[in-house]
Amino acid sequence: MRQQIVAGNWKMNNTLSEGSALVSSILEKITHPKGLVVIAPPLTNLLSVGVQLNGHEGFHLAAQNCHHETRGAYTGEVSASMIAEAGATFVILGHSERRQYFHETSEMLAAKVNQAISHSLRPVFCCGEPLEIREADKHALYVETQLREGLFHLDEASFRKVVIAYEPIWAIGTGRTASSGQAQEMHKTIRNLIADQYGAAVAEDTTILYGGSCNAQNAAELFGQPDVDGGLIGGASLKADDFATIVNSLS
Ligand code: PEP
Predict the structure, then answer these.
(1) Which residue range(s) make up the domain with 194?
(2) Which of 107, 154, 186, 236 is the most exposed place for a label (fewest CB within 10 A)?
(3) Are strands 36-40 and 122-127 parallel, antiparallel or unpaired?
(4) Which pTM value belongs to this model?
(5) Cβ distance 172 to 127 under 8 Å?
(6) Ligand 1 contact via 230 beta carbon (within 6 Å)
(7) Which one of 124, 127, 167 would you pick to mutate in the ligand 1 pocket, going by the greatest count of ligand atoms within 8 A of its CB?
């Protein structure tokens, strides 16, 4: 069965003490989430947030990235096994900020996905087009290429571990959300691609999140779309009240 998920991507925000206060507040406000709640803090907070989430049903820990090799001389990097042993069960991969600022290629992302799965981490695989591609009406093909190059090498059992996050780049951190119609259209397109690759049953079971200026005001409408199974939340995940409202918007 398809899972509903709200994931909070803190990006490079929150020191240990700030993160601890935010998680305490989130746990006070969200007692019985309708779906899974995934928190992706910076690496320095991974262990401590994991300890705080322990025993809270429905709450999971995620890292925001992992390296594409198993181990070695990669100063400043962290492997999937390190993240898994620290308590994460999810890892965000292919976020547009990583693709853009850290030059992550589809080849690297495919290897990261393999690393994640072989260490029992569920990838939250981000895809989405820049504004000029949307304006040229080439967004469906652009996202299809991202999925084919980064994910569709997986066998069915591995693919079933993946969560997809459709995040149009023009909507991330800009306050310019995709309309619920635009989100539904792309989520349906993505589900159809999965059906062609893995069959209708797998497509039906795949969780596809929307990300891009999703907030307390628009979450319910976005999550009300038949192919939108929750959200990947950036800015609004840093405010406990807003994040709780978004989680409570799951239908
Ligand atoms: C994100 O970075 O994944 C994101 C969706 O950010 P925001 O919600 O701030 O647009």
Answers:
(1) 5-70+77-247
(2) 107
(3) unpaired
(4) 0.97
(5) no
(6) no
(7) 167
- For 109-151, the pLDDT digits (tens) are 999 999 999 999 999 999 999 999 999 999 999 999 999 999 9
Most distant CA pair in the chain: distance in Å?
48
Extract the runs of DSSP E, i.e. beta strands, from the chain. Answer: 5-9, 36-40, 59-63, 90-93, 122-127, 163-166, 208-211, 230-233
CATH number of the domain encompassing residue 124? 3.20.20.70
Task: Decide: 84 and 121 in contact? Cβ < 8 Å.
Answer: yes
Specify whether 139 is catalytic: no
Integer Cα distance of 19 and 51 in angstroms = 12
Residue 100 tokens, joined: 């853009």
Using CB atoms within 10 Å of the CB of residue 157, give its burial: 0 to 12 exposed, 13 to 18 middle, 19+ buried. Answer: exposed
